[in-house]
Amino acid sequence: MAGDAIRIEPATERDVPVVLSLIRALADYEKLSDAVIATEDDLRRSLFSDNPRAHVVIAYVGETAAGFAVWFHNYSTFLGKVGVYLEDLFVRPEYRRRGIGRRLLAHLARLAVDRDCGRMEWSVLGWNETAIRLYRSVGARPMHEWTVFRLTDDALARLADEID
Question: Is the overall model pTM greater than 0.85, yes or no?
Fold first, then answer.
């Protein structure tokens, strides 16, 4: 296992069970297991339809899926360019400290540069010091002046109902 090469590949529809298992492992790490309601069918529809809403790359060590990144394009009106938004990056605990997280970030950075994206951005939980150190080590900086807002569930439905 120590000498196995790391390779990063785009997920395909056949990888849906692997992707869902990585999502569940991430949720477990973040102590949010109860929040995962996604099913394999949900992932097939959103990731592998004719118009995918997000994309996944999987990091393999040998034949084992050691981690993944989920991303999608966003848009900067100030830059007038699309960007890459990293929704999730996760490496299974037993594969950490091998450079896999950094390789996943570098893979997405290459994709962003090749697509003439204006930026790459993501959020991180404030308690995740290991991830924060990684992000700082690649040159990423926190956006302290910005606060993330989220609208979900009943609040989302109530606001949507205002248009009727």
Answer: yes
